[in-house]
Amino acid sequence: MRPLSRRAVLAGGAATAALSGCSAGGSEPAAPKAPDPEHVLLRELIVDKQRTIGLYSVLVAAGGEKLAPFLARHEEHLAALRERLPRDDAQTGSSPTPSAAPSPTPAPRKVSLTRLRDLERRAAALRPRQLGQASPALGQLIASIGACEALHALALPRSL
Questions:
Q1: What is the per-residue pLDDT for 35?
Q2: CA–CA distance, 42 with 12 (Å, rounded to integer)
Q3: DSSP letter at 107?
């Protein structure tokens, strides 16, 4: 057996030290924790409700007093969703996704009863798919909101 050279021993020691340093638990930064899917869903629902309220507000401000009860229900939904947010998120008003950066909003299309009716139908159709991501308590709230949105689609007046 041939004795190891000094260079080989030093190289082996350096490699061993480097490998052991890489596997040490304290030297690596912790990977960011994946966001809770229910929490992400909740923030998306809140943003969706804010948009809906904005559209209703435009028509109510333009003289559509008949829409005030519909607007009030959406505001109640928003309040109930916000109550479910963790306190730090509710206070900071964080965005629906961590990477969501403010983007320029396209020129708003004309707000009409037809647009609101379509929005209510699409929202109501989306709710059953969202139930799979929710706890039973949040699922019950989502189902109730979806039922209300489906009713809105049918009950919205044909004209103002």
A1: 81
A2: 53
A3: P
Contacts 24+ apart (CB under 8 A), 118-123: 119/52, 119/55, 120/149, 120/150, 120/152, 120/153, 120/156, 121/149, 121/150, 121/153, 123/48, 123/52, 123/149
Residue where the block lists tokens 């559209």: 55
Q: Are 40 and 96 in contact (CB under 8 A)?
A: yes
pTM for the whole structure: 0.69
**Which amino acid makes up residue 89?**
D
Distance, first Cα to last Cα, the chain? 98
The secondary structure of residue 108, as a DSSP letter, is P
Cα separation, 160 vs 152, whole angstroms: 15
The answer to whether the Cα torsion of 86, 89, 91, 95 is positive or negative is negative
Rounded CA separation 31/9 (Å): 35
Q: Distances in Å between the alpha carbon of 25 and those of 16, 22, 29, 32, 33?
A: 16, 8, 9, 15, 16
Q: Which amino acid appears at position 67 of this protein?
A: L
Angle at CA of residue 56, ends 53 and 58, nearest 5°: 110
Instruction: Say how far apart CA 93 and CA 85 lie, in whole Å.
Output: 10
pLDDT tens for each residue of 117-139: 999 999 999 999 999 889 999 99
